[in-house]
Design goal:
binds 3-hydroxybutanoyl-coenzyme A, N-(1-d-carboxylethyl)-l-norvaline Dehydrogenase, domain 2, 2 domains, Rossmann fold, single chain
Length: 285
Amino acid sequence: MGSYQRVMVIGAGQMGSGIVQVAAQAGCNVVMQDIKEEYTERGKRTIATSLSRFVKKGQLSEAESTAILGRITTTTDIGQAETAQIVIEAATEQMAVKKEIFKKLDDIAAQDTLLATNTSSLSVTELAAVTKRPEQVIGMHFMNPVPLMKLVEVIRGLQTSNETFAAIMSFAAELGKTAVAVEDFPGFISNRILMPMINEAVYCLYEGVAEAKAIDEIMKLGMNHPMGPLQLADYIGLDTCLYIMEVLYDGFGDSKYRPCPLLRKYVAAGWLGKKTGRGFYVYES
Ligand code: 3HC
């Protein structure tokens, strides 16, 4: 039996639904919350599709898949945080939105409930400071696609207690993930290294050094990356990539993090990658 039986996840998007899935697969009862029912419904469909892929491969039985889905409930009411032992926030990557959520969670949740954020680059320390329990706030940065990726980057805010840190490291292990701890600086480790690589690939395209497909082929075949950087950017979402570059640029004040103008242009056009059907590549619906 894991340490947390009642888990709540705020946000039913790509990351949120993935976190809900792995927690339910680990045996937790999970509440998936989002602001609209259509979002939680879409989240549930994403989970069902992912589970069906595991069933097809014989890694899960139909009965297990049904039981996992049975451990998931959905709501639009953040008030359900009242009974959660741990809440993982995976809402929109905007500090103002996250702060609002953390203030509400701090009011609603029981005193000993831990509050984790799946932020990909924002300050955990700043987020923790809006609560009256900053020592119980921590970053749990999952990777996309959550059901397949082994890593959880655990980010200690300045005020995070050793108890919270230890509890989250074991919880991540219970979810079947490998937790790696880092300190709280912009982009942490994962996105501080990944995003400048993606941004540089966009610069190569912008400067006409090579076409998108060639850039990706070089990184796939030459570096053994599972996806090329532009393909990965489309997969992550170009808006997310741009946003993280802005966080790095603002946070360090160093011109080496300046976002490529072509990345800005694609985002301005609404070419956000796979989710909108067009990014560096065009996708069939
Ligand atoms: N659930 C269950 N199974 C899934 C799945 C999901 N969500 N997504 C893919 N799969 C399965 C497929 O069914 C397939 O199974 P099979 O091999 O038995 O047929 C297998 O995974 C491989 O899928 P595909 O054949 O479609 O494609 P790939 O071989 O390219 O693998 C991938 C997909 C695992 C996503 C691989 O390309 C990969 O590892 N890419 C890099 C991902 C990465 O870098 N993620 C980190 C992004 S950065 C991030 O998340 C941080 C954030 O803050 C921005």
